[in-house]
Specification:
By secondary structure, the protein is an alpha/beta fold. Helices cover 36% and strands 15% of the residues.
Length: 228
Amino acid sequence: MLIKTATNTATNTTSEPDGPLQGGKFRHGNTEAPSQQKVLPLFTNEGKTAIVTGAGAGIGLAVAQGLAESRANVAIWYHGNKKAIDRAREIEDEAYQIDVTDAKQVQEVVDQVVREFNGRLDIFVANAGIPWTQGPALDGEIEHYRKVVATDLDSTFYCARAAGKVWRRQKEEGTDIYGRKLESYRYGSFIATASMSGHIVNIPQLQAAYNGAKAGVIHLGELSPLHQ
């Protein structure tokens, strides 16, 4: 554990680090160099568990396949695309049908994956998302707006929160849920699929709700490490 001493003209004070922060500032020396002497082993995820949402096709499926090729255990999450079940079989992993806009269900299925795989979680890729499809905002339905924001932004928060709870316990206890010492674990990795639409006005696309949701995803990803 890193202990940093701050000195002023009046007194010496010692404070313990608060996650990535210390005294409200990012602390230094909070990582260790890997022990591998070759490049290829740095890219292996052998023995690690990953969850990828929206992984029945497209970006999510490609990410899941890549993680599987790196020897990770991969849980494919999908909502309505039943082909995800076959895609999971192809990479010799499991598919879970889930509504990522339901925070309670997200937490339950995260815990289920940890139990059913190898007692740990290392990587979470929040990729689930839907577009705005109803043209000008003044003509679109409020329910469609809510669905876009719930799927694209709210679900990212729910996933980060559920995964973060697992990672906090793993960091504090140094074991999986079965009490076994964690190997090759320093911290969890949370990755969210945002969009260029989150930081530009991409005319002529009429999708203010989508752009706003993706902007939220970008900022959420930047701030999440501060909330461990």
